Amino acid sequence: MAPDRLVVGFDLDMTLIDSRPGIAAVWDAVSSRSGVFVDSALAVSRLGPPLAHEAAEWFPPERVAEAVELYRGLYPDTAITASALMGGAAEAIAAVRKHGGRVLVVTAKNTAHAKLHVDHLGLDVDEVIGGVWAEQKGEVLREHGATIFVGDHLGDIRGARAAGALALGVPTGGLSTQELREAGADVVLADLADFSFWLDDHMLERRLAALESELAGLGSVLVAFSGGADSAFLLAAAVRALGPDKVAAATAVSASLPDAELEPAREFAASLGVVHHTPRTDEMSREGYRANAGDRCYFCKAELVEVLAPLAEELGITHIATGTNADDGRAGFRPGIRAAAERGAVTPLKDAGFTKEQVREASLRWGLPTWDKPAAACLSSRIAYGLTITPARLARVEQAEVALRAVLAEASVPVRNLRVRDVGDAARVEVDAELVELVTALEDAHEAVLAAGFDVVEVDPKGFRSGSMNELLPNPQRYR
C-alpha cells in the first residue's frame, strides 16, 4: 500500500517570511495614532501568538479590541511590501512539490493578511488557514491530513503534537534550538535551507518502510529481473523483506535482450543468494510485437508475464513482480504496464511511491552496484514505430551500439547514455547532450555504426532522451 500523500504545513511569521520590519512599522503607527506607547522592537521579538495577546501587553483590556482593529486596518498598506522571504523558504516549498505533496500555511495571523503576504512573495502554496494558534493549528493540520508541521514557536510545536504530526522546529524566530527541542520538536533544523535535504531523507525512509511492508505481505515473489537499476533494487528489497528462499529472479532471454546484460544479472542475483532463472521468451511470434505500432510494449510484456506465470507456479511462488516505479506510473505512455497488470503482475516500487531518483539513492545506501547504472531499455525500443521488428534489425542495432561504445572508449569520450535508433536505412545516434558536438565530429564513430549495416548515420542534436521514439507517434494517447 502506498504511503498517504505528503501534506506539509508551515507557520508563516519567522518561518516562511521575515515580517518583523512591516509589523514593527504597523505597531509604530498604532502607537502614534492611539497615543499608547508600544515598543515595536520588543513586540516583533516575540511573534507567534495571536495579535490580541500582544495588544494586551500594551493596552488596557477595554482598548484591546480597538487596538486590534486599528492594527489590522493599517496592516495591508504598511506591512506587506516591507516583509521578505526567509532563506530557504521557496526551496522548502519546492521540495514538497518535488515529492508530489501539498503545502499548507497555518498561522495565527488572520487569513486575509496571510494571503496578501503569500501572494506578494509568490509562494506556491495550496491553502492558507489563518487565525489559529497552538492546539488550534493541530485541529487544522489533522483536518487536512498533514503529517509534518514546520514552525519557529512553542505554539507551532504544540500544534504539531496535537495533530500527531512530526514537529519540525527552526530557530529563526525568538527561540533557540535547545528551547525548541525541550518543547518537544522531533527535529530542529538550522533553518529552512536544510529542509529539502531532511525531506528527501524522510521520504526515502518512509517509502522504504512502505516497500518492506508491501513485499512482506506478498509472501513470496518472482522478480522479472532485467538487470536494470529498478528491478535490481526490487530484487534486493524482496530479499531483505522475505529472505532469499522466498524470492527468485527471472531474466527473459530473447533477441531483444542485449547479450551484455545477462552475465551481470546472473552475478547480481548470486550476490543476493537468489536463484536466477533464464526462461526464453518469444515475443517475435506475436504479430502485435512484430508490427511495432505504438503498443508494441504491450505484447512484449504480455509474453514475459505469460512465460513467467508457469515458472512461478512450478517454484511455488505466489506473485510475479516487475520493477515499474512511480515515475513510470505517472508517465502515461506505458502499454507494457497495462499488459502486466492485466495478467496479475504486481508493482511494489510503484505502489510504495518509489521514484527513479529514490531507487538510485536507496541502492547507493545499500551498496548495490546498479545504483548508477544507465537506463537500458530492450533493443526493440530502438526500432522506429511502424518498422517491422526482426531478429536482423535487433542484431544490427546491438552490433552498432557495441561498436560505437568501443570507439568512444578508445577516444576517451565519457559517454554514459547511448542509443542507436533504427529509423529505416538510417541510424540516429543519441548520446549525452554535452557530447553531441564531439561525437558528431568523430569520424570513427560514424564508421562504426555504418559497419553494422546502416546506409546513413546522423547524431541527434537533442541528445539522449528516454522514449524519444514516442515523439514520432501521431497520436500516442491512443496507446496509453
Provide a quick synopsis of the model.
With 480 residues, this protein is an alpha/beta fold.
Word description of this protein:
The protein is of the alpha/beta class. The chain has helices spanning 20-34, 40-44, 51-55, 64-78, 89-98, 111-121, 135-143, 154-163, 177-182, 195-216, 229-242, 262-271, 287-291, 296-315, 326-331, 335-342, 348-351, 356-365, 391-410, 436-440, 443-450, and strands at 7-10, 17-18, 84-85, 102-106, 127-129, 148-151, 166-169, 187-188, 221-224, 247-250, 275-277, 319-321, 418-422, 426-431, 456-459. The strands form four sheets. A six-stranded parallel β-sheet has the order 5-4-1-6-7-8, sandwiched between helices. Helix 14 runs parallel beside helix 16 and helix 19 packs antiparallel against helix 21 (443-450). The protein is elongated. The protein starts with 6 loop residues before the first strand and ends in a 21-residue tail after the last strand.
Please give the structural blueprint:
Layout: E1 7-10, E2 17-18, H1 20-34, H2 40-44, H3 51-55, H4 64-78, E3 84-85, H5 89-98, E4 102-106, H6 111-121, E5 127-129, H7 135-143, E6 148-151, H8 154-163, E7 166-169, H9 177-182, E8 187-188, H10 195-216, E9 221-224, H11 229-242, E10 247-250, H12 262-271, E11 275-277, H13 287-291, H14 296-315, E12 319-321, H15 326-331, H16 335-342, H17 348-351, H18 356-365, H19 391-410, E13 418-422, E14 426-431, H20 436-440, H21 443-450, E15 456-459
Parallel strand pairs: 1-4, 1-6, 4-5, 6-7, 7-8, 9-10, 9-12, 10-11, 14-15
Antiparallel strand pairs: 2-3, 13-14
Helix pairs in contact: 1-4, 5-10, 7-8, 10-11, 14-16, 19-21
